[in-house]
Amino acid sequence: YLQSFEIPEEIKETEKKQFLTEAARYFVKENVLYRKDRQGHHQLCVHPDHRYRLLIAAHESLGHRGFFPVRQLLLRRFWWPSMKEDIKWHLQSCRQCQ
User: Fold this and answer.
1) Coil, strand or helix: which one is 46?
2) Which domain, by its residues, includes 23?
3) Which burial class, exposed, middle or buried, applies to 87 when counting CB atoms under 10 A from its CB (0-12, 13-18, 19+)?
4) Is there a smaller number of Cβ atoms within 10 Å at the N or the C end of the chain?
5) How many domains does one find in the chain?
6) 24 CB contacts (<8 Å, ≥6 apart)?
7) CA angle (31 as vertex; 30, 36 as ends), nearest 5
8) Is residue 56 part of a domain?
9) Nearest CA to 88 among 66, 72, 73?
């Protein structure tokens, strides 16, 4: 949508307004996808291949703190759809935190 400005056919008529509202939060700059948070900060949309490394780095840089500090640190610069679930999974599987 961000390149063609055409709403995908699978989007129902009742969902179009929500789709357009959400799509307005995304933009591409120099071939990189970003998302604007509610305060207008730009968050890099992270490819799945890079998420785990970011999670580990954030968790370790905070001294193995919990969910909210890790999520807050990541959300300052990054975003991906399953971030909340991925952080929870990582914290539950961190041997040092158990």
Assistant:
1) coil
2) 13-97
3) buried
4) C
5) 1
6) none
7) 80
8) yes
9) 66
Domain contains 6: no
β-bridge mates for residue 34, sequence order: 27, 44
Q: Between β-strands 78-79 and 42-45, what pairing exists: parallel, antiparallel or unpaired? A: parallel
Number of helical H runs and strand E runs in the chain? 4, 4
45: domain CATH number? 1.10.340.70
* E strands, the chain, in order: 26-29, 32-36, 42-45, 78-79
* pTM of the predicted model as reported, rounded to 2 decimal places: 0.83
Is there a domain that residue 4 lies in?
A: no
Per-residue model confidence as pLDDT tens digits over 11-65: 999 999 999 999 999 999 999 999 999 999 999 999 999 999 999 999 999 999 9
Residue type, 31: N
